Description:
Layout: H1 3-18, E1 28-34, E2 44-48, E3 51-54, H2 59-67, E4 72-75, H3 79-83, H4 92-98, E5 102-105, H5 117-128, E6 134-137, H6 142-156, H7 160-169, H8 176-181
Parallel strand pairs: 3-6, 4-5, 4-6
Antiparallel strand pairs: 1-2, 2-3
Helix pairs in contact: 6-7
Amino acid sequence: MNGSKLSLVLMLFSATLTGQALAVDVEPFAMPKVSVEAGFQDFYAQVARNIYVSGQPDESALALAKAKGVSRVINLRTHQEMDNRMVVPFDEAAAVASLGLEYVHIPLGGPDTPYSEESLAAFAEAVASSDGPVLLHCTVAWRASHLWAAYLVAHQGYSVASAVEVGKRMNMGGFPFAEFLGRSVNLDVK
Protein backbone atom coordinates (compact mmCIF):
# COMPACT_ATOMS: atom_id res chain seq x y z
CA MET A 1 0.00 0.00 0.00
CA ASN A 2 1.51 3.35 -0.99
CA GLY A 3 1.77 6.29 1.40
CA SER A 4 -1.25 8.19 0.02
CA LYS A 5 -3.55 5.19 0.37
CA LEU A 6 -2.17 4.36 3.81
CA SER A 7 -2.72 7.89 5.12
CA LEU A 8 -6.29 7.93 3.78
CA VAL A 9 -7.02 4.52 5.35
CA LEU A 10 -5.53 5.67 8.68
CA MET A 11 -7.57 8.88 8.58
CA LEU A 12 -10.80 6.96 7.93
CA PHE A 13 -9.97 4.38 10.61
CA SER A 14 -9.11 7.11 13.10
CA ALA A 15 -12.37 8.94 12.40
CA THR A 16 -14.28 5.69 12.95
CA LEU A 17 -12.53 4.96 16.27
CA THR A 18 -13.04 8.44 17.64
CA GLY A 19 -16.63 8.63 16.46
CA GLN A 20 -15.92 11.65 14.28
CA ALA A 21 -17.85 11.93 11.06
CA LEU A 22 -16.04 12.98 7.94
CA ALA A 23 -16.73 16.56 6.93
CA VAL A 24 -18.59 15.47 3.78
CA ASP A 25 -20.88 12.49 4.02
CA VAL A 26 -20.69 10.94 0.55
CA GLU A 27 -23.87 9.08 -0.31
CA PRO A 28 -23.59 8.28 -4.04
CA PHE A 29 -26.84 8.22 -5.95
CA ALA A 30 -27.58 4.96 -7.78
CA MET A 31 -27.71 7.09 -10.92
CA PRO A 32 -26.57 10.71 -11.26
CA LYS A 33 -29.15 13.51 -11.44
CA VAL A 34 -28.19 15.12 -14.74
CA SER A 35 -29.60 18.57 -15.46
CA VAL A 36 -28.97 21.57 -17.66
CA GLU A 37 -27.40 24.47 -15.81
CA ALA A 38 -26.30 27.69 -17.47
CA GLY A 39 -22.60 28.42 -17.23
CA PHE A 40 -21.35 24.82 -17.15
CA GLN A 41 -19.72 23.58 -20.37
CA ASP A 42 -21.59 20.58 -21.81
CA PHE A 43 -22.45 18.74 -18.58
CA TYR A 44 -23.74 19.16 -15.03
CA ALA A 45 -24.94 16.51 -12.56
CA GLN A 46 -25.40 15.88 -8.89
CA VAL A 47 -23.85 12.46 -8.32
CA ALA A 48 -24.13 12.27 -4.53
CA ARG A 49 -25.81 14.23 -1.79
CA ASN A 50 -22.72 16.47 -1.53
CA ILE A 51 -20.94 16.00 -4.87
CA TYR A 52 -21.54 17.76 -8.18
CA VAL A 53 -19.69 16.95 -11.42
CA SER A 54 -19.53 19.32 -14.37
CA GLY A 55 -17.76 20.61 -17.40
CA GLN A 56 -15.81 23.88 -17.12
CA PRO A 57 -17.80 26.40 -15.07
CA ASP A 58 -17.77 30.06 -15.98
CA GLU A 59 -17.75 32.71 -13.25
CA SER A 60 -21.57 32.79 -12.99
CA ALA A 61 -21.63 28.99 -12.61
CA LEU A 62 -19.13 29.21 -9.75
CA ALA A 63 -21.50 31.67 -8.02
CA LEU A 64 -24.38 29.24 -8.64
CA ALA A 65 -22.31 26.42 -7.11
CA LYS A 66 -21.73 28.56 -4.03
CA ALA A 67 -25.47 29.27 -3.81
CA LYS A 68 -26.04 25.49 -3.82
CA GLY A 69 -23.73 25.20 -0.80
CA VAL A 70 -20.53 24.11 -2.55
CA SER A 71 -17.52 24.93 -0.39
CA ARG A 72 -14.72 23.35 -2.46
CA VAL A 73 -14.03 23.30 -6.20
CA ILE A 74 -11.82 20.49 -7.49
CA ASN A 75 -10.41 21.16 -10.95
CA LEU A 76 -8.90 18.34 -13.06
CA ARG A 77 -7.80 20.47 -16.02
CA THR A 78 -4.10 20.73 -16.79
CA HIS A 79 -1.97 23.80 -16.12
CA GLN A 80 -1.70 24.38 -19.87
CA GLU A 81 -5.48 24.45 -20.21
CA MET A 82 -6.01 26.74 -17.23
CA ASP A 83 -3.24 29.17 -18.24
CA ASN A 84 -4.63 29.62 -21.77
CA ARG A 85 -7.05 32.60 -21.61
CA MET A 86 -8.47 31.64 -25.01
CA VAL A 87 -9.62 28.36 -23.40
CA VAL A 88 -10.52 29.60 -19.90
CA PRO A 89 -10.96 33.40 -20.06
CA PHE A 90 -10.57 34.03 -16.33
CA ASP A 91 -8.35 32.99 -13.43
CA GLU A 92 -10.44 30.22 -11.88
CA ALA A 93 -8.41 29.94 -8.67
CA ALA A 94 -8.83 33.69 -8.06
CA ALA A 95 -12.55 33.58 -8.91
CA VAL A 96 -13.10 30.68 -6.52
CA ALA A 97 -11.16 32.46 -3.75
CA SER A 98 -13.16 35.69 -4.31
CA LEU A 99 -16.32 33.69 -3.57
CA GLY A 100 -14.84 32.40 -0.32
CA LEU A 101 -14.58 28.84 -1.63
CA GLU A 102 -11.63 26.48 -1.45
CA TYR A 103 -9.81 25.53 -4.63
CA VAL A 104 -8.05 22.20 -5.21
CA HIS A 105 -6.21 21.59 -8.47
CA ILE A 106 -5.50 17.96 -9.41
CA PRO A 107 -4.34 18.30 -13.03
CA LEU A 108 -4.99 15.17 -15.10
CA GLY A 109 -4.06 14.35 -18.68
CA GLY A 110 -0.90 14.54 -20.68
CA PRO A 111 2.58 13.18 -20.05
CA ASP A 112 3.29 15.40 -17.03
CA THR A 113 0.04 14.66 -15.21
CA PRO A 114 -1.04 11.09 -16.00
CA TYR A 115 -4.05 9.32 -14.55
CA SER A 116 -2.83 7.53 -11.42
CA GLU A 117 -3.72 6.00 -8.08
CA GLU A 118 -2.16 9.06 -6.46
CA SER A 119 -4.64 11.30 -8.31
CA LEU A 120 -7.53 9.18 -7.05
CA ALA A 121 -6.13 9.35 -3.50
CA ALA A 122 -5.76 13.14 -3.77
CA PHE A 123 -9.39 13.41 -4.88
CA ALA A 124 -10.60 11.15 -2.06
CA GLU A 125 -8.66 13.25 0.47
CA ALA A 126 -10.05 16.49 -0.99
CA VAL A 127 -13.60 15.14 -0.63
CA ALA A 128 -13.04 13.72 2.85
CA SER A 129 -11.48 16.93 4.19
CA SER A 130 -14.02 19.34 2.68
CA ASP A 131 -16.23 21.38 5.00
CA GLY A 132 -19.19 21.01 2.64
CA PRO A 133 -20.36 19.99 -0.81
CA VAL A 134 -17.81 19.66 -3.61
CA LEU A 135 -17.87 20.61 -7.30
CA LEU A 136 -15.59 18.36 -9.39
CA HIS A 137 -14.92 19.50 -12.95
CA CYS A 138 -12.74 19.27 -16.03
CA THR A 139 -13.48 20.54 -19.55
CA VAL A 140 -16.67 18.58 -20.38
CA ALA A 141 -16.76 16.19 -17.38
CA TRP A 142 -15.08 13.32 -19.25
CA ARG A 143 -12.07 13.08 -16.90
CA ALA A 144 -14.31 13.93 -13.94
CA SER A 145 -16.72 11.11 -14.86
CA HIS A 146 -13.87 8.62 -15.09
CA LEU A 147 -12.41 9.79 -11.76
CA TRP A 148 -15.85 9.57 -10.09
CA ALA A 149 -16.32 6.01 -11.38
CA ALA A 150 -12.87 5.04 -10.06
CA TYR A 151 -13.75 6.64 -6.70
CA LEU A 152 -16.95 4.57 -6.54
CA VAL A 153 -14.91 1.37 -6.95
CA ALA A 154 -12.01 2.27 -4.66
CA HIS A 155 -13.89 4.11 -1.90
CA GLN A 156 -17.57 3.22 -2.10
CA GLY A 157 -17.46 -0.54 -2.76
CA TYR A 158 -18.99 -0.47 -6.24
CA SER A 159 -18.13 -3.20 -8.72
CA VAL A 160 -16.30 -2.02 -11.82
CA ALA A 161 -19.37 -2.81 -13.93
CA SER A 162 -21.69 -0.78 -11.67
CA ALA A 163 -19.29 2.17 -11.55
CA VAL A 164 -18.91 2.16 -15.34
CA GLU A 165 -22.70 2.14 -15.69
CA VAL A 166 -22.89 5.25 -13.48
CA GLY A 167 -20.06 6.85 -15.47
CA LYS A 168 -21.82 6.18 -18.77
CA ARG A 169 -24.91 8.00 -17.44
CA MET A 170 -22.62 10.94 -16.83
CA ASN A 171 -20.19 12.06 -19.50
CA MET A 172 -17.79 9.13 -19.43
CA GLY A 173 -18.72 8.14 -22.94
CA GLY A 174 -17.16 5.02 -24.32
CA PHE A 175 -13.62 3.89 -24.13
CA PRO A 176 -11.71 5.44 -27.04
CA PHE A 177 -10.19 2.04 -27.85
CA ALA A 178 -13.66 0.56 -28.41
CA GLU A 179 -14.84 3.64 -30.28
CA PHE A 180 -11.90 3.37 -32.71
CA LEU A 181 -12.93 -0.21 -33.37
CA GLY A 182 -16.62 0.68 -33.65
CA ARG A 183 -17.71 -2.08 -31.30
CA SER A 184 -18.05 -2.97 -27.65
CA VAL A 185 -14.92 -4.24 -25.95
CA ASN A 186 -14.79 -6.30 -22.76
CA LEU A 187 -11.75 -5.24 -20.77
CA ASP A 188 -10.60 -7.84 -18.24
CA VAL A 189 -9.98 -6.28 -14.86
CA LYS A 190 -7.43 -7.97 -12.62
